[in-house]
Amino acid sequence: MEKAGARTDILIYVVDDDPVVTSLVSGRLEGNGYSVRAFSYAEDCIAALGDIPDLIILDYYFLKEGETPMNGMEAYDEITRIAPEVPVVMLSAQEKGEVVLEFARKGIADYVIKDTDLIDNLLMAVKDVLER
Known about the structure:
CATH topology: Rossmann fold
Shape: globular
Order of helices and strands: EHEHEHEHEH
Strand content: 15-25%
Number of strands: 5
Mean pLDDT: 88
Structural class: alpha/beta
Distance between the termini: 25 Å
Number of helices: 5
CATH architecture: 3-Layer(aba) Sandwich
Number of domains: 1
Low-confidence stretches: none
CATH class: Alpha Beta
Largest sheet: 5 strands, parallel
CATH superfamily: Response regulator
């Protein structure tokens, strides 16, 4: 049964290199009636932007053995260059004020910290951003 306010025609990209986080976030979003495509790295998400999502949930820091992948700031800049109409919610363990402030200056839709309230806070942020 579809949850009130959620529609399966809303596509959300989830970009996080932690498979546990990706699985939890994707599962809860799908459980709330959203369509989800998950990516481990920002480069993969950017390559898929031919199919424009309604929202992107983007991790800040990515690790990849033997490589230096884009970080969330670099990815956000590229996403907004390709698809400026797509809101981005940053998902990160980063609590540094200067990082959050820089994203706010750039126009990020919301910033959710990876903590024990991650899923609830993220679902509230998704709902709020999609209702704007």
